[in-house]
Every structure is written in C-alpha cells, then in structure tokens.
Specification:
The longest helix is centred in the first third of the chain and has 9 residues. The strands form 2 sheets. This protein has a 14-stranded antiparallel β-barrel with strand order 1-2-3-4-5-6-7-10-11-12-13-14-15-16. Strands 8-9 form a two-stranded antiparallel sheet. The chain contains 3 helices and 16 strands. It has a single domain, classed as Porin, CATH 2.40.160.40.
C-alpha cells in the first residue's frame, strides 16, 4: 500500500502514463494506429469514413480499474477523434504520518480525462496531429482540474515509420493547496516492417523527473486476421508486455497484459472496436 500512497501523494494525474489500451503494453508511441493512437500519438492517429467506437478496460492491482472510450471519424482531410478516460483507484487505506501499520480508514481517488484529437497528412508521407485535453483529479476530499496538449509529427511509408512529439504539455493541477505539473514527456519512435514481422522502438524523456523510459517490441501477423506481439519495456525497471489482436470485418478484439513495475503486479487490458 505504501507504493499507492506515494503515487497519490505526488498527485499530477500520473495515470496518464498508464497503458490506456491493449497495445499500451508494447511500443505504444511508434506503432499505435487507428483509435488507439488517440491515447498516445496524435500524428499516427487515423480515422475512416465510418464512425469507429472503441472501448478498453484495464484491471490493475487489486481494485484499481481504468476505462477508456474512443470515438473517431474522418471529415474531409482531417481525422477527428475524442476519448474519455476514467481511472478508479478503488478504496485506499489511510495511514497517519508517523510510522505504523495501522490504518485509520479508507478513502477514494479517481482521475478523469476528456480529449479531442485531430490529425492530417502533410506532404506525401508526413502527418501532424494535436490533442487538447481536460484533466480532472480527485483524491479524498481534494480535487483539481487543468488543460493540457499533445503535439506530434510523423513520417510513414509502407516500409517504416518514425514520429516525435510532446505529451501533457502546459498542464498544472492544484490538489490540497499544492500545484503539481502533469507528467510531461518528450517522445521519439521508430518501426520497420519486415515481411510479416514489425520491429519497433520507443524512447521517452520524462520532463518532471529527468528520467528516460523505453520499449522494444516485435509484432507478427500469424494469419490475415490475427496478430501477436511481445515487448521488453523499461520504466525504472525492465518488465515484459504481451499482446494479441483478432480482426473480423469491421470489428476487432484486442488483449494486452504486462507484469507492471512499482509492485503493481499483473495488469490486464481488453478492448473491442466496432464500425458503424
């Protein structure tokens, strides 16, 4: 529980760094596409002429739950999407400040984020994207809200793709008379297609903590409508990620799992997406 209490005490909606979808346990920045890219990289986000609705559910450490909803559609030359995130910490044990193992009760905490994303092509293989987000955090009896932005550019062809950008820029949230910056980061990503196998790499610089995080992943299409992936991720420590996706017509089902750091244990994420 000390790990969770430390997370809450720092505030700043650190849940914005948690995997929002099944592919979030892999190289989510360089190789996310479709609705999933709304969560991570605006420039690689792409929509279709039909509406696509996606829902992802994560179960993390005991009673912690994360629900992410995305809706997208193409309007002329612009891909437009929105997403809603609700992260519920569940009931958290409250401890007095002096060293003790005795809890004094329980309190609740949750984070909420509403985002609007837009992306478009520039030149032949270039893309640019921007996402504006409203972020709200509630811890015990305290709450605060702020606005922030994600910006990114990408170059993508049929063999490889690369992208770079900034996430959670400009947001400062105030909780219990303390002002805390959102977890801003600068990211670069690269992937390359090798027949049925795609290799990818992400590197992130965490602005607030002056630390680096990274991921290396490999994905393979086992069949035309079935893909799998595995990753080695680094976030203070190395941890694995596993993924599979099943497609049929305009519907897909995706599942990702990871043994997450910070003693959070096994994380499971499942999602479904529909065209209409």
């Amino acid at each position: 529980m000390n790990i969770l209490l430390l997370l809450l005490a720092s505030a700043g909606v650190n849940t914005l760094l948690m995997p929002a979808s099944a592919r979030g346990v892999l190289t989510y920045y360089s190789h996310s596409t479709g609705d999933e890219a709304i969560f991570y990289n605006p420039a690689t986000f792409s929509a279709r002429d039909d509406y696509r609705l996606s829902l992802f559910y994560s179960n993390i450490y005991a009673s912690m739950k994360n629900i992410n909803l995305a809706l997208s559609r193409k309007f002329n030359k612009f891909d437009i999407g929105m997403n809603i995130m609700n992260f519920d910490y569940g009931l958290i044990e409250a401890h007095p400040e002096y060293p003790t193992d005795d809890a004094t009760g329980f309190y609740a905490a949750n984070d909420f984020c509403l985002s609007i994303c837009a992306a478009t092509a520039i030149a032949e293989n270039g893309r640019v994207g921007i996402k504006a987000k409203y972020v709200y955090e509630n811890i015990y009896i305290y709450s605060g809200a702020t606005l922030a932005f994600d910006l990114s550019i990408a170059y993508i062809n049929h063999i490889y793709g690369m992208s770079a950008g900034a996430t959670n820029i400009g947001g400062t949230i105030r909780i219990a008379s303390e002002s805390v910056n959102l977890p801003a980061k600068l990211s670069v990503g690269y992937y390359r297609n090798l027949n049925k196998i795609t290799l990818s790499f992400d590197l992130h610089y965490m602005v607030n903590t002056h630390t680096f995080e990274s991921s290396v992943a490999g994905e393979m299409k086992v069949k035309e409508n079935f893909e799998i992936g595995v990753a080695a991720n680094y976030r203070d420590q190395i941890y694995p990620g596993f993924y599979f996706g099943l497609y049929h017509g305009g519907m897909y089902i995706k599942y990702g799992t990871s043994i997450y750091p910070y003693d959070l244990g096994l994380m499971n994420n499942i999602g479904i997406s529909l065209l209409f």
